[in-house]
Design a protein that fits this description.
Distance between the termini of chain A: 53 Å
Number of domains of chain B: 2
Radius of gyration of chain A: 21 Å
Number of helices of chain B: 8
Strand content of chain A: 5-15%
Number of domains of chain A: 2
CATH architecture of the largest domain in chain A: Alpha-Beta Complex
CATH topology of the largest domain in chain A: 2-enoyl-CoA Hydratase, Chain A, domain 1
Order of helices and strands of chain B: EEHHEHEEHEHEEEHHEH
Oligomer: heterodimer
Largest sheet of chain B: 8 strands, mixed
Structural class of chain A: alpha/beta
Number of helices of chain A: 14
Protein name (chain B): Acetyl-coenzyme A carboxylase carboxyl transferase subunit beta
Number of strands of chain B: 10
Largest sheet of chain A: 8 strands, mixed
Helix content of chain A: 40-55%
Domain CoA carboxyltransferase N-terminal (chain B): 24-291
Shape of chain B: globular
Number of strands of chain A: 8
CATH topology of the largest domain in chain B: 2-enoyl-CoA Hydratase, Chain A, domain 1
CATH class of the largest domain in chain A: Alpha Beta
Enzyme class (chain B): transferase
Radius of gyration of chain B: 22 Å
Order of helices and strands of chain A: HHHHEEEHHEHHEHEEHHHEHH
CATH class of the largest domain in chain B: Alpha Beta
Region (Disordered) (chain B): 1-23
Pathway (chain B): Lipid metabolism; malonyl-CoA biosynthesis; malonyl-CoA from acetyl-CoA: step 1/1
Structural class of chain B: alpha/beta
CATH superfamily of the largest domain in chain B: 2-enoyl-CoA Hydratase, Chain A, domain 1
Chain lengths: 317, 291
C-alpha cells in the first residue's frame, strides 16, 4: 500500500497495530486491549483526516496509485461473464479505452471506460488513461451496439484528459469527442455514468453524458486539471491547490451546481482502503439506477436526458 | 571403407517400386511439430505443441459448434452454372467437376441450422478446398438464404469465412455477391438479430469487403491471414517491405477490426457467451470465463 503525505498518520498507526498483533502472536503477553485501542485510534484518525479533505487532497486521492481502476470494477462486478470487445473498426484498438459486455445477475450491461495502468509498463501500455480518437470511436461503436440490442450502458470515467498528440489531432480528437457527446444525448437505452477517479474535461465528457451521473466521493470532475489551470491562469504550476479550490471540482461542489446527480460514499479511508466494499457499493448503485431507468420508455428517457442538459448553465437576464 | 559409399549415383528405385507410407496418420505443423491425426482431431484440429490452427472445413466446424454434430443442412443441392462459358487453363465446368470430385462438396459454402449449447443457431461455413473457397453465385445465394432462414425463425447468424475472395470464373456476377450478402445482412440487422463473423485462415479479398467485416462482432482464429489485397499484391504495388505480422489476426485486431481472437477450443463457449450477453438472456451453464 502506498500513502499520500496527509495519510501518513494512518500509516503510522497501521504499522503500530501490525507490531502489536505480532507481539501478541509471538509471545504470551495479552495485547488484545492495546490492539483494540490502536484500532480505535486508527479509525478515529482516518475519519478525522477524511472528514476535512481539501479540494487538492481529493485530487490527490483520485489519483491514488492503489485506487481501483475501470477493469477492477468490471471484473469484480461481473466475474467471469465479462467479455471484452476491441477496436474502433477504423484505425486501432485503443488500450486507454476499454469496453465489453458483462452481467450483473441476469441483466446484461455494456461497460465502457478509460483504463489506467498499475505499474510503469502498464501505464505506458494504457497511455496513462488518455484516449485517442479511436478510443472514443470504439466507445461509440459499443454504445450503438448496445442500443441496437437494448442493453443499458455503464461508463466508468477515470482520465487526466483526452490524449493531446499530433496523430490524435490528425485523426480528429475534437470531432470524435463531439460525436460521442451528441450521440449519447439521444441514445435510446439507459446510460449510467460513474466518475471513479479523474474526470478531466472533454476527455471525460466524451463518455460522460448520461441519465444518471454519479461521482465517487474522492474524485474530481472539471473543465481542466488544477495543475493546467494553475499554469495557464497563474502562469506557474505552484498554484494547483488554489486552482483546485477555485475550480469547485469536488463531488460536493458538482452536486451543488446540479451538474451531477449523486455522490457515492466511499468506505472509510477511501476506495483504495476497502476495494471489495467499494465494488459492492458501485454494483448496488448501478442496479438501483437501472431499476428506476428501465421503467421509462426510450422517448421519456431521451426527453429527460435532453431536458437535464438543457438546464445546465448560470446566467443573468 | 568402400562399403560405406554408394556405388551408383542417385536414387535407383523406380517410382513404381517406391513404398508408400499411409497418408494422413501424422500431421506436421509449419513450425515442424508433429502430431497424430487422431490426437489432432481431439484437440479441435489445433496442433497441441505450438497452437497452430490447422485449416479445416465445414464438416469439422459443424462438429465443433453443433451439439453432438446434429444439424440440418440448408439448400444442399444448389450448384454453380457456367453463365460466362469461362475458360482459363481449364474450362470452368471441368474445374467445378474436379472440385466436386475432390471434395465431395457442391460448392464453397455449406449452411446449416442446429443447436449449439442447447440453443438454435444458423451457421454458414466456407470450404477452402473447393476452388479456394471462392465466392460465386452459389455462395452468395446460399448465404442469402441462410440469413433469410435466420430472420424467419428469429435466430442468430454466424458466418465462418475461409476464402481467397470472389470467384473469377463468374466475374462480375461474383462481385455482386458482395452487395447481395451485405444487403441481406442489413435486413438481419434491421430485424435486431445478432451476427457473428468468424474470420479463419485465410479470409481475403471480396469476403473482407463484405460479410467477413460486417459482424456485430468480428472475431478470428489466432494467426489467421485476414486482408483485402493479398500480401504479395501489396508488396508489389507499394514496393515496401511488409511488417512480419502483416495481415495476421493479431495485426488486424491491433488496427481495430476484430473484437477478439479466440482459440478454437474456446470457440463454442465464447460465441454462446456473446449471444447470451447481447440478447440479454441468462447465461447458460458453463459459459463463464475461467477466473
Amino acid at each position: 500500500m502506498e500513502y499520500l503525505d496527509f495519510e501518513l498518520p494512518i500509516k503510522e498507526l497501521e504499522e503500530q497495530l501490525e507490531k502489536c498483533q505480532l507481539i501478541g502472536e509471538e509471545s504470551d503477553v495479552d495485547v488484545t486491549e492495546t490492539c483494540k485501542q490502536i484500532e480505535k485510534k486508527l479509525e478515529k484518525t482516518r475519519e478525522e483526516i477524511y472528514k476535512n479533505l481539501s479540494a487538492w487532497q481529493r485530487v490527490q486521492l483520485s489519483r491514488h496509485p492503489n485506487r481501483p481502476y475501470t477493469l477492477d470494477y468490471i471484473r469484480a462486478i461481473c466475474g467471469g461473464s465479462f467479455l471484452e470487445l476491441h477496436g474502433d473498426r477504423t484505425v486501432k484498438d485503443d488500450k486507454a479505452m476499454i469496453g465489453g459486455l458483462g452481467k450483473i445477475g441476469n441483466q446484461s450491461y455494456m461497460f465502457i471506460g478509460q483504463q489506467k495502468g498499475y505499474n510503469t509498463k502498464t501505464r505506458q501500455y494504457r497511455n496513462f488513461g488518455m484516449a485517442n480518437p479511436e478510443g472514443y470511436r470504439k466507445a461509440l461503436r459499443l454504445m450503438k451496439s448496445a442500443e441496437k440490442f437494448n442493453i443499458p450502458v455503464v461508463c466508468f470515467i477515470d482520465t487526466p484528459g483526452a490524449y493531446p498528440g499530433i496523430e490524435a489531432e490528425e485523426r480528429g480528437q475534437g470531432e470524435a469527442i463531439a460525436r460521442n457527446i451528441l450521440e449519447m444525448t439521444r441514445l435510446k437505452v439507459p446510460i449510467i455514468v460513474l466518475i471513479i477517479g479523474e474526470g478531466a474535461s472533454g476527455g471525460a465528457l466524451g463518455i460522460g453524458v448520461g441519465d444518471k451521473v454519479l461521482m465517487l466521493e474522492n474524485t474530481w470532475y472539471s473543465v481542466i486539471s488544477p495543475e493546467s489551470c494553475s499554469s495557464i491562469l497563474w502562469r506557474s504550476w505552484e498554484y494547483k491547490e488554489q486552482a483546485a479550490e477555485a475550480l469547485k471540482l469536488t463531488a460536493e461542489d458538482m452536486k451543488k451546481m446540479k451538474l451531477i446527480d449523486e455522490i457515492v460514499k466511499e468506505p472509510s479511508g477511501g476506495a483504495h482502503a476497502d476495494r471489495d466494499k467499494t465494488f459492492e457499493i458501485v454494483k448496488n448503485k448501478i442496479q438501483k439506477h437501472f431499476r428506476d431507468l428501465k421503467k421509462l420508455s426510450p422517448k421519456e428517457l431521451v426527453d429527460q436526458r435532453m431536458e437535464k442538459y438543457a438546464n445546465m448553465g448560470v446566467f443573468k437576464g | 571403407m568402400s562399403w560405406f559409399k554408394r556405388k551408383e549415383k542417385g536414387i535407383q528405385t523406380a517410382t513404381e517400386e517406391k513404398k508408400d507410407t499411409p497418408k494422413g496418420l501424422w500431421y506436421k505443423s509449419p513450425t515442424g511439430k508433429i502430431v497424430e491425426s487422431e490426437e489432432l482431431a481431439k484437440n479441435f484440429y489445433v496442433s497441441p505443441e505450438d497452437d497452430y490452427h490447422v485449416r479445416i472445413g465445414s464438416k469439422e466446424y459443424f462438429s465443433i459448434l453443433f451439439d453432438d454434430n446434429n444439424f440440418t443442412e440448408l439448400d444442399q443441392g444448389l450448384k454453380s452454372k457456367d453463365p460466362l462459358k469461362f475458360e482459363d487453363t481449364k474450362k470452368y465446368t471441368d474445374r467445378l467437376k474436379a472440385a466436386e470430385k475432390k471434395t465431395g462438396l457442391n460448392d464453397a459454402v455449406r449452411t446449416a441450422v442446429g443447436k449449439s449449447m442447447g440453443r438454435d443457431l444458423v451457421i454458414a461455413c466456407m470450404d477452402f478446398s473447393f476452388i479456394g473457397g471462392s465466392m460465386g453465385s452459389v455462395v452468395g445465394e446460399k448465404i442469402a438464404r441462410a440469413i433469410d432462414y435466420a430472420i424467419a425463425h428469429e435466430l442468430p447468424f454466424m458466418m465462418i469465412s475461409k476464402s481467397g475472395g470472389a470467384r473469377m470464373m463468374e466475374a462480375a456476377l461474383s462481385l455482386m455477391q458482395l452487395a447481395k450478402t451485405s444487403a441481406k445482412l442489413a435486413q438481419l440487422s434491421e430485424a435486431g438479430l445478432p451476427y457473428i463473423s468468424l474470420c479463419t485462415d485465410p479470409t481475403t479479398g471480396g469476403t473482407t469487403a463484405s460479410y467477413a467485416m460486417l459482424g456485430d462482432i468480428n472475431i478470428a482464429e489466432p494467426g489467421a491471414l485476414i486482408g483485402f489485397a493479398g500480401p504479395r499484391v501489396v508488396k508489389e504495388a507499394t514496393g515496401k517491405d511488409l511488417p512480419p505480422d502483416f495481415q495476421t489476426a493479431e495485426f488486424v485486431k491491433e488496427h481495430g477490426f476484430l473484437d477478439f481472437i479466440v482459440h478454437r477450443r474456446e470457440l463454442k463457449k465464447t460465441v454462446n457467451r456473446y449471444l447470451d450477453l447481447i440478447q440479454n438472456k441468462p447465461l447458460r451453464k458453463g459459459l463463464l470465463a475461467d477466473a
